[in-house]
Amino acid sequence: MKTLTHFPYKHVLVLGLAKSGEAAARLLHQSGVQVRINDQKPFTENPKAQSLQELGMEVITGGHPPSVLDDIEYVVKNPGIPYSNPIVDEALKRRIPVVTEVELAYMLHEGNLVGITGSNGKTTTTTLVYEMLKASQSPAALAGNIGNVSCEVAQDTTNEETMVLELSSFQLLGTETFRPHVGIFLNLYEAHLDYHGTMDDYGQAKAKLFANQSEQDYLIYNQDQEDVVNLIQHASSVLVPFSKQERLIEEGIWIDDSHLYYKDRSIIPLQNIKLAGQHNLENIMASVGAALLSGGTISGIRQVLQTFTGVKHRMQFVKEVNKRRFYNDSKATNILATKNALEAFSSPTILLAGGLDRGNDLEDLTPYLKHVKAMVLFGETATKFEQLAKDNGIDTHIMVDNVKQAAEEAYHLSAPGDVILLSPACASWDQYRTFEERGDMFMDAVHTLK
């Protein structure tokens, strides 16, 4: 297991535990660094903090006193902790570097690295690249925002392996030297403004994906989106565009009515691609480019595209019950993702939606509600969705306490041939720890229906 061999800091604060904080603390401790841990949860209710203290690390829990920064040279923070946090703000005022554990992963892994970001499609694209490399017999490791802590995975990788990382804006904002050999910038839509404040700041966080790239690296980007094109103008890497609208025969990945191409080479007929949804074509194009630039083969790429149907919690077919089809799209934590989900169906649909209220306007969903016959709503935004239903003439709308009840009520409202779609358009944190927990509850409820 690898450790940080040339780490220049002797005393590090790990701010916030959860999975990433615990992994970072263990790595730093194993690397001979003096580690101080600060976590909001009280010590008696904090088994992670108890375990780390037993290893000899200093642990401060139950609050964030300013003294946690005494003698500290470097801060590794949980990505979800905002920069308005008093400890983070004070650290920056003192010119103490504040990073996320992705930066530590980059320090550890010396092989090829593919970094994938965007407002939507990250998980699907990351999984596709990883599966394409595996099918090509090219060693690969999967990590990042997809659920596997990057610095933990990096400890076990070899230099022959390609690390494929899903990267959120929260993670990227906390990087300094991070530099993927191949970067993918999928798209940029309004999201996480409660964290970043403005779209410009959100875009700049995403742009850290390629901030340190050189002419020896590659940046695959969405040429069809003006905001992305504007942001990549100053990239130093080799630019590889993908487009559903233009024929990029000289420089990129593109489609026509029948095939997907890499430059002038046909990769696969569109009719042979198993993954449904027009929006997924962008994810597929980007993944094809990254796989080819990272040692993937045409045969391996084709094998995956002919069999891959999607990832858990993203437009996941759960079950058919008495001719009703249930889909779990719990990973739809913003409006664009739910638009894409609704657009994929033409059957009468019962939409299950709601969650954390970030102040977003739901009216953008209006053009996509034409097949929605009923809504079952939950969470902080339930009343907003109820108004959306009323404004669009959807007379059947019910508010429930959780997604288990939502699945049951939707079934009672449905008829044979209907689609019952969990696509919340909101983050889960008002009721659930993660979107995975929300999706699992929904699927458990579906499997108990008779």
Quick recap of the structure?
The protein is built from 16 helices and 20 strands. The chain is α/β, with parallel strands linked by helices.
Task: Give the overall pLDDT as a whole number.
Answer: 95
Structural class: alpha/beta
| CATH class type of the largest domain | Alpha Beta
The gross shape turns out to be globular
How many domains would you count in the coordinates? 3
**How helical, in percent, are the residues?**
25-40%
The total count of strands amounts to 20
Q: Can you say what the CATH homologous superfamily of the largest domain is?
A: Mur-like, catalytic domain
Low-confidence stretches: none
**Treating each run of at least 4 consecutive H or I residues as one helix, how many helices?**
16
> How far apart lie the N and C ends?
49 Å
Largest sheet: 9 strands, mixed
Please describe what this structure looks like:
By secondary structure, this protein is α/β, with parallel strands linked by helices. It folds into 3 domains: 11-99, Rossmann fold (3-Layer(aba) Sandwich); 110-305, Mur-like, catalytic domain (UDP-N-acetylmuramoyl-L-alanine:D-glutamate ligase, 3-Layer(aba) Sandwich), CATH 3.40.1190.10; 316-447, Mur ligase, C-terminal domain (Protein-Tyrosine Phosphatase, Chain A). 32% of the residues lie in helices and 21% in strands. The protein has 16 helices and 20 strands. It has a 9-stranded mixed beta sheet. A 6-stranded mixed beta sheet has the order 15-16-20-17-18-19, sandwiched between helices. Helix 5 (122-135) crosses helix 11 and helix 15 packs across helix 16. The chain is globular. The mean pLDDT is 95.
